[in-house]
Description:
With 517 residues, the protein is of the alpha/beta class. The chain is built from 19 helices and 15 strands.
Amino acid sequence: MDRRHKVELFEEIRRGYAAGETIQGLATKHRVHRRMVRQAIANAIPPERKKVDREQPRLGPLKELIDGMLEQDRDAPRKQKHTAHRIFTRLRQEHPEHPIGEPTVRRYVAARKRELGLSGREVFVPQSYQFGQEAQVDWFEATAKLSGERCVLQFFAMRSMASGDAFHRAYTNATQQAFLEGHELGFAYFDGVFRTLRYDNLTIAVKKILRGYRREETSRVIAFRSHWGFTSEYCNPASGNEKGGVEGEVGRYRRNWLVPVPEANDLVSLNEQLLAGCIASRDRTISGRNMTVGQASQMERSHLLPLAEDRFPIDEILFPLVVDGHGRVKVKTNWYSTPLWPGLRVTARVWPSRVEIEHDGECVARHQRCYGRGHQILNLEHYLDVLEKKPGAMAGSTPLEQWRQAGRWPECLDQMWKKLEQRHGRGGGAREMISLVRAGLNDEWDRLIAAVQEALRLGVTDAAAVLHILRMPDAEERRRYEISLSEELTEFERPQPVMDEYDLLLAAPLPSKGVIQ
């Protein structure tokens, strides 16, 4: 009989007894013992059922073995301790003469772990935070689709413990530069600096864990902390609960903004989506509070430390670097193209997601940073001057192949190139194609591709005609006057002049000096 039915039964007994029924009569009527009738008359609440310690004939012989396994776990590594299932498996294999059910083992192991102080469950004390007092920082891993390809990215997270507002940003690698840049962007998002930031024991920030909460930090992190004016605190090893605020925020953000797997053209576009998600999350209200996260964050801004006037130099400067014979500069472990001549000394600025090459204080090349080893990151634009002198090298060039793999060189450009070669020869066709590439770089690449597609549709195969289409002011106007445009472009389809008669003049012998003819 469940407790609810027993309470109802006690009520009926009490009513019957008040109406004059006897204890024996109530016991017979409700088919219960007279003892229960007396309990109901004495108290409307049924007494708790006494727990009877029953003998455990099957578990009894195994208790000492189970206790021994649990005692051994005191010195075992955290992730190599016995689970209840593992203990049951060992008992079944090592002591088949004592068959026992797994639920029985589980109940006993749970009780003994509590008694021995080995239970993983802890009691945590809720914390309260003042505005601007503390933010917690963490990295987490998630998957995104960039240009249709799945990538595992590292996400930087910073959460205000008072307001609940949080900032998230994605990086390809969790480097120290990304760590510092994430801080600066987070401070800009919150419009101020928190007095205390709490971390895990990150290797990019901590060189050595000392006794207690003391840490030996890297010199760069110390300088960064000094620049922005905050203090840092670190959790105990394997104690993620000490920064439970950001741990819970990571789960919330992943469930709401990374499901389904986000898609973007590149990392820049993805971070724009992530920032929009952070701003949209300000409209939510945390349970137990009477204002939205956005309202609390707005109130917190006046309590934050002011932003530093100058940015911290998080970029790594490499100098001197020398341009090699292929127009490349080796930055760390990879090669990046430049439009400079071989032998020039340049400077490289390395950021978390990009590499900039400078010459005489001017940025001459900018590339997306590669974290591999021995890769070439080449831009066809940097080789156009050389290819005009060596047009035959363009067809098999590595920069052109990288543009094709990146989707920057569609099939229509190869079709136009083939027609230009048929018209002007291999070298002349390549030079004409280079002139189109230059025009596309100046007038936007997408517009050039659209102009080439339209020229092919109209049957025009001349670079000048493509440039004419490219420089037309309005695409709608071109469609409106399509017939007249087709007639206009036929001017460029005139056959090449025949130079045979001029070649005969060059072949005639020149008159001798002093001879009058």
